[in-house]
Amino acid sequence: MVEQRKTVYRHSLTTRVTHWVFFIAFLVLVSSGLQIFNAAPYLDASDKTNPTRRVLQISSPAAGAGTTTVFGHTFSTSGWLGWTDDGMGGKGARAFPSWITIPAYQDLADGRRWHLFFAWFMVIGGIAYIVSALARRELRELVLRPRDVPKIWPMQLYYLRLRKEPPPHGKYNPLQKAAYTTVLFIFAPLIVLSGLALSPGFDSWMPWIVQGLGGRQFARLWHFAAMIGLIGFLGVHLGAVVTTGVLNHLRSMVTGYYRLGAHDGTGV
Amino acid sequence: MKRRLFIATGLSATLAACSQIGTKLNDNAGFHHALESAEGLNERVIGTRGLVREYSASDISSDFPVNSLPTPSDDSYVRLANGGFRSYALTVDGLVDYPQRFTLSQLTHLMNLTEITRHDCVEGWSVVAEWQGVRLSSVLGLVRPKPEARYVVFHSYDRDDNGTSYYESLNLVQAAHPQTLLSLRQNGKALEIDRGAPLRLTVPTQLGYKSAKWLRRIEVTASLQGLYGGKGGYWEDQGYEWYAGI
Protein backbone atom coordinates (compact mmCIF):
# COMPACT_ATOMS: atom_id res chain seq x y z
CA MET A 1 0.00 0.00 0.00
CA VAL A 2 1.32 3.39 -0.94
CA GLU A 3 1.46 5.70 1.99
CA GLN A 4 -0.47 8.88 1.30
CA ARG A 5 1.33 12.00 2.48
CA LYS A 6 0.10 15.52 2.51
CA THR A 7 1.64 17.98 0.07
CA VAL A 8 1.84 21.70 0.72
CA TYR A 9 2.30 24.59 -1.68
CA ARG A 10 5.63 25.89 -0.54
CA HIS A 11 7.40 27.96 -3.18
CA SER A 12 5.75 30.80 -5.09
CA LEU A 13 6.29 31.10 -8.82
CA THR A 14 8.70 34.01 -8.27
CA THR A 15 10.75 31.98 -5.81
CA ARG A 16 10.94 29.03 -8.18
CA VAL A 17 11.80 30.98 -11.31
CA THR A 18 14.35 33.21 -9.57
CA HIS A 19 16.01 30.21 -7.89
CA TRP A 20 16.75 28.58 -11.25
CA VAL A 21 17.83 31.92 -12.71
CA PHE A 22 20.14 32.50 -9.74
CA PHE A 23 21.60 29.01 -10.06
CA ILE A 24 22.45 29.26 -13.76
CA ALA A 25 23.54 32.90 -13.62
CA PHE A 26 25.72 32.23 -10.57
CA LEU A 27 27.52 29.34 -12.27
CA VAL A 28 28.13 31.49 -15.35
CA LEU A 29 29.24 34.48 -13.27
CA VAL A 30 31.72 32.34 -11.32
CA SER A 31 33.26 30.75 -14.40
CA SER A 32 33.36 33.95 -16.47
CA GLY A 33 34.58 35.84 -13.40
CA LEU A 34 37.50 33.44 -13.01
CA GLN A 35 38.25 33.97 -16.72
CA ILE A 36 38.44 37.73 -16.02
CA PHE A 37 40.51 37.16 -12.87
CA ASN A 38 43.02 35.18 -14.95
CA ALA A 39 43.98 38.37 -16.84
CA ALA A 40 45.43 39.79 -13.60
CA PRO A 41 45.67 36.87 -11.17
CA TYR A 42 46.32 38.78 -7.97
CA LEU A 43 44.31 40.77 -5.42
CA ASP A 44 45.56 43.81 -3.52
CA ALA A 45 44.01 45.45 -0.45
CA SER A 46 44.55 48.91 -1.97
CA ASP A 47 43.13 51.40 -4.47
CA LYS A 48 45.85 51.25 -7.14
CA THR A 49 47.83 48.09 -7.80
CA ASN A 50 50.26 47.67 -4.92
CA PRO A 51 52.30 44.46 -4.52
CA THR A 52 53.15 45.35 -0.91
CA ARG A 53 49.46 44.97 -0.01
CA ARG A 54 48.94 41.74 -1.94
CA VAL A 55 46.50 39.29 -0.38
CA LEU A 56 46.41 36.64 -3.09
CA GLN A 57 48.62 35.90 -6.05
CA ILE A 58 48.48 32.93 -8.38
CA SER A 59 51.52 32.62 -10.60
CA SER A 60 53.78 30.32 -12.54
CA PRO A 61 57.41 30.80 -11.50
CA ALA A 62 58.64 28.36 -14.15
CA ALA A 63 57.23 26.17 -16.91
CA GLY A 64 55.37 23.30 -15.29
CA ALA A 65 55.09 24.98 -11.89
CA GLY A 66 52.10 26.78 -10.42
CA THR A 67 52.07 28.56 -7.07
CA THR A 68 49.43 30.26 -4.96
CA THR A 69 50.48 32.87 -2.43
CA VAL A 70 47.99 33.80 0.30
CA PHE A 71 49.03 36.55 2.77
CA GLY A 72 52.68 35.93 1.92
CA HIS A 73 52.54 32.13 2.31
CA THR A 74 53.30 30.31 -0.92
CA PHE A 75 51.90 26.88 -1.75
CA SER A 76 52.70 24.70 -4.72
CA THR A 77 49.51 24.27 -6.76
CA SER A 78 50.86 22.93 -10.07
CA GLY A 79 48.07 21.50 -12.21
CA TRP A 80 45.36 23.17 -10.12
CA LEU A 81 46.28 26.86 -9.99
CA GLY A 82 49.02 28.80 -11.78
CA TRP A 83 50.13 26.11 -14.21
CA THR A 84 46.98 24.52 -15.63
CA ASP A 85 45.35 23.19 -18.77
CA ASP A 86 44.83 26.00 -21.30
CA GLY A 87 41.63 24.77 -22.92
CA MET A 88 43.40 24.07 -26.19
CA GLY A 89 44.82 20.67 -25.35
CA GLY A 90 47.98 21.88 -23.66
CA LYS A 91 49.12 23.28 -20.34
CA GLY A 92 50.38 26.75 -19.60
CA ALA A 93 50.79 29.61 -17.16
CA ARG A 94 47.13 30.21 -16.33
CA ALA A 95 45.72 30.95 -12.87
CA PHE A 96 42.42 29.06 -12.95
CA PRO A 97 42.22 25.98 -15.17
CA SER A 98 40.19 25.90 -18.37
CA TRP A 99 37.61 23.43 -17.05
CA ILE A 100 36.25 26.06 -14.67
CA THR A 101 36.27 29.13 -16.97
CA ILE A 102 33.99 30.48 -19.70
CA PRO A 103 35.22 30.33 -22.40
CA ALA A 104 37.52 27.40 -21.59
CA TYR A 105 40.43 29.00 -23.48
CA GLN A 106 41.92 32.34 -22.38
CA ASP A 107 39.66 35.09 -23.76
CA LEU A 108 39.20 38.17 -21.59
CA ALA A 109 36.93 39.96 -24.09
CA ASP A 110 34.40 37.12 -24.20
CA GLY A 111 34.70 36.40 -20.48
CA ARG A 112 33.66 40.02 -19.93
CA ARG A 113 30.76 39.70 -22.40
CA TRP A 114 29.40 36.69 -20.49
CA HIS A 115 29.94 38.28 -17.11
CA LEU A 116 28.36 41.64 -17.95
CA PHE A 117 25.40 39.92 -19.64
CA PHE A 118 24.56 37.38 -16.92
CA ALA A 119 25.06 39.94 -14.15
CA TRP A 120 21.78 41.43 -15.38
CA PHE A 121 19.92 38.16 -14.76
CA MET A 122 21.25 38.16 -11.21
CA VAL A 123 20.24 41.81 -10.66
CA ILE A 124 16.77 41.50 -12.22
CA GLY A 125 16.17 38.14 -10.47
CA GLY A 126 17.36 39.65 -7.21
CA ILE A 127 15.00 42.61 -7.47
CA ALA A 128 12.07 40.33 -8.41
CA TYR A 129 12.83 38.02 -5.50
CA ILE A 130 13.15 40.80 -2.90
CA VAL A 131 10.00 42.60 -4.09
CA SER A 132 8.02 39.36 -4.10
CA ALA A 133 9.37 38.27 -0.70
CA LEU A 134 8.50 41.67 0.75
CA ALA A 135 5.02 41.57 -0.76
CA ARG A 136 4.37 38.08 0.65
CA ARG A 137 5.93 39.10 3.97
CA GLU A 138 8.38 36.25 3.60
CA LEU A 139 11.42 38.26 4.56
CA ARG A 140 10.31 38.48 8.19
CA GLU A 141 10.59 34.70 8.42
CA LEU A 142 14.02 34.73 6.77
CA VAL A 143 15.74 37.53 8.61
CA LEU A 144 17.74 36.88 11.74
CA ARG A 145 16.49 38.92 14.73
CA PRO A 146 18.31 39.64 17.98
CA ARG A 147 16.09 37.11 19.77
CA ASP A 148 17.32 34.36 17.38
CA VAL A 149 20.96 34.92 18.23
CA PRO A 150 21.06 32.89 21.50
CA LYS A 151 19.52 29.95 19.61
CA ILE A 152 22.26 29.77 16.97
CA TRP A 153 24.66 27.71 19.06
CA PRO A 154 22.02 25.20 20.33
CA MET A 155 20.94 24.73 16.70
CA GLN A 156 24.54 24.05 15.68
CA LEU A 157 24.80 21.49 18.52
CA TYR A 158 21.65 19.80 17.21
CA TYR A 159 23.15 19.59 13.71
CA LEU A 160 26.31 18.12 15.20
CA ARG A 161 24.11 15.54 16.98
CA LEU A 162 25.23 16.81 20.37
CA ARG A 163 21.72 17.85 21.27
CA LYS A 164 18.53 15.84 20.86
CA GLU A 165 16.03 18.55 20.00
CA PRO A 166 16.47 21.71 17.97
CA PRO A 167 15.64 24.93 19.81
CA PRO A 168 12.06 26.07 19.10
CA HIS A 169 11.88 28.21 15.95
CA GLY A 170 9.57 29.36 13.17
CA LYS A 171 9.56 28.29 9.52
CA TYR A 172 13.34 28.65 9.35
CA ASN A 173 15.74 27.75 12.12
CA PRO A 174 18.24 30.27 13.54
CA LEU A 175 21.19 28.94 11.49
CA GLN A 176 19.21 29.14 8.30
CA LYS A 177 18.16 32.68 9.18
CA ALA A 178 21.77 33.61 9.89
CA ALA A 179 22.83 32.21 6.49
CA TYR A 180 20.00 33.90 4.55
CA THR A 181 20.56 37.19 6.35
CA THR A 182 24.28 37.09 5.52
CA VAL A 183 23.55 36.38 1.86
CA LEU A 184 20.76 38.95 1.48
CA PHE A 185 22.27 41.80 3.47
CA ILE A 186 26.03 41.28 3.21
CA PHE A 187 27.16 39.10 0.29
CA ALA A 188 24.58 40.19 -2.31
CA PRO A 189 24.97 43.97 -1.83
CA LEU A 190 28.73 43.57 -1.49
CA ILE A 191 29.13 41.62 -4.71
CA VAL A 192 26.98 44.10 -6.66
CA LEU A 193 28.65 47.24 -5.30
CA SER A 194 32.20 45.84 -5.53
CA GLY A 195 31.51 44.77 -9.11
CA LEU A 196 30.25 48.24 -10.01
CA ALA A 197 33.25 49.78 -8.24
CA LEU A 198 35.57 48.15 -10.79
CA SER A 199 34.01 50.31 -13.48
CA PRO A 200 35.66 53.68 -14.21
CA GLY A 201 32.28 54.92 -15.49
CA PHE A 202 30.74 54.11 -12.10
CA ASP A 203 33.66 55.94 -10.49
CA SER A 204 32.54 59.04 -12.39
CA TRP A 205 29.08 58.54 -10.91
CA MET A 206 29.55 57.42 -7.28
CA PRO A 207 33.26 57.72 -6.43
CA TRP A 208 32.36 57.58 -2.74
CA ILE A 209 31.29 53.96 -3.07
CA VAL A 210 34.63 53.05 -4.67
CA GLN A 211 36.44 54.88 -1.88
CA GLY A 212 34.22 53.32 0.78
CA LEU A 213 35.31 49.88 -0.39
CA GLY A 214 38.96 50.90 -0.15
CA GLY A 215 39.49 51.65 -3.84
CA ARG A 216 39.38 49.74 -7.10
CA GLN A 217 41.83 46.93 -6.31
CA PHE A 218 40.22 46.47 -2.90
CA ALA A 219 36.88 46.21 -4.70
CA ARG A 220 38.33 43.33 -6.75
CA LEU A 221 39.27 41.69 -3.45
CA TRP A 222 35.77 42.23 -2.00
CA HIS A 223 34.20 40.92 -5.20
CA PHE A 224 36.31 37.75 -5.01
CA ALA A 225 35.70 37.33 -1.27
CA ALA A 226 31.93 37.71 -1.72
CA MET A 227 32.09 35.05 -4.44
CA ILE A 228 33.85 32.67 -2.03
CA GLY A 229 31.17 33.43 0.56
CA LEU A 230 28.37 32.74 -1.90
CA ILE A 231 29.99 29.49 -3.06
CA GLY A 232 30.17 28.47 0.61
CA PHE A 233 26.50 29.31 1.06
CA LEU A 234 25.57 27.40 -2.10
CA GLY A 235 27.49 24.36 -0.81
CA VAL A 236 25.66 24.39 2.53
CA HIS A 237 22.32 25.16 0.85
CA LEU A 238 22.67 22.28 -1.61
CA GLY A 239 24.02 20.09 1.21
CA ALA A 240 20.76 20.62 3.05
CA VAL A 241 18.83 19.80 -0.14
CA VAL A 242 20.75 16.58 -0.65
CA THR A 243 20.33 15.38 2.93
CA THR A 244 16.63 16.17 3.34
CA GLY A 245 15.19 14.58 0.22
CA VAL A 246 16.63 15.75 -3.09
CA LEU A 247 13.68 14.76 -5.27
CA ASN A 248 11.11 16.26 -2.95
CA HIS A 249 13.03 19.54 -2.87
CA LEU A 250 13.66 19.55 -6.62
CA ARG A 251 10.00 18.91 -7.29
CA SER A 252 8.92 21.69 -4.96
CA MET A 253 11.34 24.01 -6.77
CA VAL A 254 9.62 23.11 -10.06
CA THR A 255 5.93 22.69 -9.20
CA GLY A 256 5.91 24.52 -5.89
CA TYR A 257 4.49 21.52 -4.01
CA TYR A 258 6.45 19.90 -1.21
CA ARG A 259 5.49 16.54 0.27
CA LEU A 260 5.43 16.61 4.04
CA GLY A 261 7.25 13.76 5.70
CA ALA A 262 10.26 13.09 7.84
CA HIS A 263 11.58 16.58 7.29
CA ASP A 264 8.37 18.57 7.34
CA GLY A 265 8.71 22.02 8.64
CA THR A 266 12.39 22.21 7.78
CA GLY A 267 13.16 24.61 5.03
CA VAL A 268 16.40 24.67 3.07
CA MET B 1 32.80 14.25 5.42
CA LYS B 2 31.58 12.02 2.58
CA ARG B 3 28.59 14.31 2.17
CA ARG B 4 30.83 17.37 1.84
CA LEU B 5 32.97 15.60 -0.71
CA PHE B 6 29.83 14.70 -2.63
CA ILE B 7 28.60 18.30 -2.67
CA ALA B 8 32.03 19.67 -3.64
CA THR B 9 32.38 17.10 -6.42
CA GLY B 10 28.85 17.77 -7.62
CA LEU B 11 29.37 21.55 -7.71
CA SER B 12 32.71 21.16 -9.49
CA ALA B 13 31.18 18.84 -12.06
CA THR B 14 28.34 21.32 -12.61
CA LEU B 15 30.81 24.17 -13.07
CA ALA B 16 32.81 22.05 -15.51
CA ALA B 17 29.65 21.25 -17.48
CA CYS B 18 28.78 24.95 -17.40
CA SER B 19 32.22 25.80 -18.83
CA GLN B 20 31.85 23.17 -21.57
CA ILE B 21 28.38 24.32 -22.61
CA GLY B 22 29.45 27.97 -22.31
CA THR B 23 32.45 27.46 -24.57
CA LYS B 24 30.24 25.81 -27.21
CA LEU B 25 27.67 28.62 -26.98
CA ASN B 26 30.45 31.20 -27.15
CA ASP B 27 31.31 29.99 -30.65
CA ASN B 28 27.66 30.32 -31.72
CA ALA B 29 27.24 33.59 -33.63
CA GLY B 30 23.61 34.13 -32.59
CA PHE B 31 24.30 33.54 -28.93
CA HIS B 32 27.38 35.74 -29.05
CA HIS B 33 25.30 38.49 -30.61
CA ALA B 34 22.84 38.19 -27.72
CA LEU B 35 25.70 38.50 -25.21
CA GLU B 36 26.84 41.69 -26.94
CA SER B 37 23.39 43.22 -26.48
CA ALA B 38 24.21 43.91 -22.81
CA GLU B 39 26.74 46.56 -23.83
CA GLY B 40 24.13 49.16 -24.80
CA LEU B 41 22.27 48.58 -21.54
CA ASN B 42 25.49 48.88 -19.53
CA GLU B 43 26.31 52.13 -21.30
CA ARG B 44 22.85 53.53 -20.62
CA VAL B 45 22.88 52.54 -16.96
CA ILE B 46 26.50 53.33 -16.03
CA GLY B 47 27.46 55.90 -18.66
CA THR B 48 29.68 58.79 -17.67
CA ARG B 49 27.85 60.95 -15.18
CA GLY B 50 30.39 63.16 -13.49
CA LEU B 51 34.03 63.41 -12.65
CA VAL B 52 36.20 60.47 -11.63
CA ARG B 53 38.25 60.83 -8.48
CA GLU B 54 41.34 63.04 -8.69
CA TYR B 55 44.34 62.22 -6.52
CA SER B 56 47.15 64.10 -4.82
CA ALA B 57 50.81 63.96 -5.89
CA SER B 58 51.66 61.50 -3.10
CA ASP B 59 49.29 58.93 -4.65
CA ILE B 60 51.20 58.70 -7.95
CA SER B 61 52.32 55.12 -8.67
CA SER B 62 56.08 54.62 -8.84
CA ASP B 63 55.66 52.02 -11.53
CA PHE B 64 53.41 52.29 -14.59
CA PRO B 65 53.29 49.14 -16.70
CA VAL B 66 53.77 49.49 -20.46
CA ASN B 67 51.00 47.34 -21.85
CA SER B 68 51.59 47.99 -25.54
CA LEU B 69 54.47 47.72 -27.95
CA PRO B 70 57.36 49.85 -26.60
CA THR B 71 57.46 52.05 -29.71
CA PRO B 72 55.70 52.23 -33.06
CA SER B 73 57.74 50.75 -35.89
CA ASP B 74 56.12 53.09 -38.44
CA ASP B 75 58.82 54.81 -40.57
CA SER B 76 57.34 58.27 -40.28
CA TYR B 77 57.14 57.88 -36.51
CA VAL B 78 60.76 56.74 -36.27
CA ARG B 79 61.83 59.82 -38.30
CA LEU B 80 59.82 62.11 -35.99
CA ALA B 81 61.29 60.48 -32.89
CA ASN B 82 64.83 60.75 -34.25
CA GLY B 83 64.22 64.47 -34.75
CA GLY B 84 63.00 64.89 -31.19
CA PHE B 85 59.41 65.38 -32.51
CA ARG B 86 60.31 68.93 -33.61
CA SER B 87 58.48 68.38 -36.92
CA TYR B 88 55.45 66.73 -35.29
CA ALA B 89 52.01 68.12 -36.04
CA LEU B 90 48.62 66.71 -35.08
CA THR B 91 46.07 66.73 -37.87
CA VAL B 92 42.49 67.40 -36.78
CA ASP B 93 40.04 67.06 -39.64
CA GLY B 94 36.94 65.24 -40.87
CA LEU B 95 33.48 66.72 -40.31
CA VAL B 96 34.76 70.05 -38.97
CA ASP B 97 34.47 73.64 -40.16
CA TYR B 98 38.16 74.47 -39.66
CA PRO B 99 40.48 71.53 -40.19
CA GLN B 100 43.87 72.29 -38.65
CA ARG B 101 47.34 71.00 -37.95
CA PHE B 102 48.63 71.66 -34.45
CA THR B 103 52.39 71.74 -33.92
CA LEU B 104 53.85 70.67 -30.60
CA SER B 105 54.54 74.27 -29.59
CA GLN B 106 50.95 75.26 -30.45
CA LEU B 107 49.67 72.36 -28.35
CA THR B 108 52.02 73.31 -25.53
CA HIS B 109 50.62 76.85 -25.60
CA LEU B 110 47.10 75.45 -25.44
CA MET B 111 47.84 73.31 -22.33
CA ASN B 112 45.00 73.94 -19.88
CA LEU B 113 44.64 70.89 -17.64
CA THR B 114 46.69 68.91 -15.15
CA GLU B 115 44.95 65.92 -13.60
CA ILE B 116 46.11 63.11 -11.34
CA THR B 117 43.81 60.22 -12.15
CA ARG B 118 43.68 56.44 -11.95
CA HIS B 119 44.27 54.46 -15.12
CA ASP B 120 42.16 51.28 -14.96
CA CYS B 121 43.24 48.48 -17.24
CA VAL B 122 40.69 46.03 -18.65
CA GLU B 123 42.96 43.28 -17.30
CA GLY B 124 42.23 44.45 -13.77
CA TRP B 125 45.22 46.49 -12.59
CA SER B 126 45.21 50.22 -11.78
CA VAL B 127 47.91 52.89 -11.63
CA VAL B 128 47.78 56.56 -10.67
CA ALA B 129 49.64 59.17 -12.73
CA GLU B 130 49.65 62.89 -13.35
CA TRP B 131 48.73 63.96 -16.87
CA GLN B 132 49.19 67.40 -18.36
CA GLY B 133 47.90 68.61 -21.67
CA VAL B 134 45.04 70.14 -23.63
CA ARG B 135 41.43 69.30 -22.98
CA LEU B 136 40.08 67.54 -26.05
CA SER B 137 37.05 69.85 -25.87
CA SER B 138 39.36 72.87 -26.34
CA VAL B 139 40.82 71.46 -29.56
CA LEU B 140 37.35 70.51 -30.81
CA GLY B 141 36.17 74.04 -29.99
CA LEU B 142 38.84 75.41 -32.35
CA VAL B 143 37.99 73.13 -35.28
CA ARG B 144 34.18 73.25 -34.76
CA PRO B 145 32.54 69.88 -35.48
CA LYS B 146 29.75 70.09 -38.06
CA PRO B 147 26.14 69.38 -37.01
CA GLU B 148 26.24 65.85 -38.46
CA ALA B 149 29.36 64.95 -36.44
CA ARG B 150 28.87 62.10 -33.93
CA TYR B 151 32.27 60.54 -33.19
CA VAL B 152 35.86 61.56 -32.66
CA VAL B 153 38.32 58.99 -34.02
CA PHE B 154 41.93 58.85 -32.83
CA HIS B 155 44.45 57.47 -35.33
CA SER B 156 47.74 56.24 -33.86
CA TYR B 157 51.17 55.65 -35.38
CA ASP B 158 51.03 52.25 -33.69
CA ARG B 159 50.58 49.07 -35.71
CA ASP B 160 50.61 45.48 -34.52
CA ASP B 161 52.73 42.67 -35.95
CA ASN B 162 50.09 42.02 -38.60
CA GLY B 163 50.16 45.65 -39.73
CA THR B 164 46.76 46.48 -38.19
CA SER B 165 46.65 50.09 -36.99
CA TYR B 166 45.73 51.08 -33.46
CA TYR B 167 42.86 53.53 -33.26
CA GLU B 168 40.16 54.50 -30.83
CA SER B 169 36.98 56.56 -30.77
CA LEU B 170 34.71 58.50 -28.44
CA ASN B 171 31.29 59.97 -29.01
CA LEU B 172 30.95 63.75 -28.77
CA VAL B 173 29.68 63.61 -25.19
CA GLN B 174 32.64 61.53 -24.00
CA ALA B 175 34.97 63.75 -26.04
CA ALA B 176 33.58 66.87 -24.35
CA HIS B 177 34.05 65.43 -20.85
CA PRO B 178 36.20 67.85 -18.81
CA GLN B 179 38.66 65.08 -17.83
CA THR B 180 39.18 63.82 -21.39
CA LEU B 181 42.66 65.03 -22.17
CA LEU B 182 45.23 65.16 -24.96
CA SER B 183 48.31 64.54 -22.83
CA LEU B 184 51.74 65.97 -23.60
CA ARG B 185 53.31 65.30 -20.20
CA GLN B 186 53.20 62.54 -17.62
CA ASN B 187 54.34 63.02 -14.01
CA GLY B 188 55.88 66.39 -14.84
CA LYS B 189 57.98 65.29 -17.82
CA ALA B 190 57.39 65.23 -21.57
CA LEU B 191 55.88 61.84 -22.49
CA GLU B 192 58.45 59.08 -22.91
CA ILE B 193 58.29 57.18 -26.18
CA ASP B 194 56.86 54.03 -24.54
CA ARG B 195 54.16 56.19 -22.87
CA GLY B 196 52.91 57.56 -26.17
CA ALA B 197 55.18 60.50 -27.08
CA PRO B 198 54.66 63.12 -28.18
CA LEU B 199 50.87 63.11 -27.71
CA ARG B 200 48.41 60.57 -26.35
CA LEU B 201 44.82 60.44 -25.22
CA THR B 202 43.87 60.16 -21.52
CA VAL B 203 40.29 59.05 -20.79
CA PRO B 204 40.07 58.35 -17.04
CA THR B 205 36.32 57.68 -17.25
CA GLN B 206 36.92 54.56 -19.34
CA LEU B 207 39.25 51.55 -19.36
CA GLY B 208 42.86 51.99 -20.44
CA TYR B 209 42.51 50.77 -24.01
CA LYS B 210 40.57 53.97 -24.85
CA SER B 211 43.64 56.05 -23.99
CA ALA B 212 45.38 55.66 -27.35
CA LYS B 213 49.10 56.42 -27.54
CA TRP B 214 51.17 58.08 -30.30
CA LEU B 215 48.37 60.16 -31.83
CA ARG B 216 48.78 60.92 -35.51
CA ARG B 217 45.42 62.32 -36.46
CA ILE B 218 42.05 63.12 -34.95
CA GLU B 219 39.14 62.66 -37.30
CA VAL B 220 35.58 63.77 -36.63
CA THR B 221 33.04 61.45 -38.25
CA ALA B 222 29.32 60.74 -38.44
CA SER B 223 29.79 56.97 -38.08
CA LEU B 224 32.33 54.36 -37.09
CA GLN B 225 31.44 52.01 -39.91
CA GLY B 226 33.93 51.78 -42.72
CA LEU B 227 36.84 52.72 -40.48
CA TYR B 228 39.27 49.83 -39.94
CA GLY B 229 37.23 46.92 -38.50
CA GLY B 230 34.17 49.14 -38.05
CA LYS B 231 33.76 48.66 -34.29
CA GLY B 232 35.42 51.92 -33.29
CA GLY B 233 38.75 50.71 -31.94
CA TYR B 234 41.63 48.27 -32.26
CA TRP B 235 40.51 46.18 -29.28
CA GLU B 236 36.83 46.71 -30.10
CA ASP B 237 37.51 45.09 -33.48
CA GLN B 238 38.77 42.10 -31.49
CA GLY B 239 35.67 41.72 -29.34
CA TYR B 240 36.10 44.23 -26.51
CA GLU B 241 33.29 46.67 -25.74
CA TRP B 242 33.22 50.06 -27.43
CA TYR B 243 31.72 51.43 -24.22
CA ALA B 244 34.74 50.88 -21.99
CA GLY B 245 33.28 52.54 -18.90
CA ILE B 246 32.73 49.14 -17.26
The helicity of chain B comes to: 25-40%
Helicity level of chain A: 40-55%
- CATH domain topology of the largest domain in chain A: Fumarate Reductase Cytochrome B subunit
**CATH level-four homologous superfamily name of the largest domain in chain A:** Transmembrane di-heme cytochromes, Chain C
Integer average pLDDT of chain A: 92
Sketch the major β-sheet of chain A: 4 strands, antiparallel
Largest sheet of chain B: 5 strands, mixed
Which CATH architecture of the largest domain in chain B?
Answer: Alpha-Beta Complex
Specify Rg of chain B, calculated over alpha carbons. Answer: 21 Å
Shape field of chain A = globular
Please report the number of helical segments of chain A: 9
Text of the CATH class of the largest domain in chain A: Mainly Alpha
Shape of chain B: globular
CATH superfamily of the largest domain in chain B: Oxidoreductase, molybdopterin-binding domain
At the fold tier of CATH, the topology name of the largest domain in chain B is Sulfite Oxidase, Chain A, domain 2
Low-pLDDT windows of residues of chain A: none
Strand content of chain B: 25-35%
Structural class by sheet pairing and helices of chain B = alpha+beta
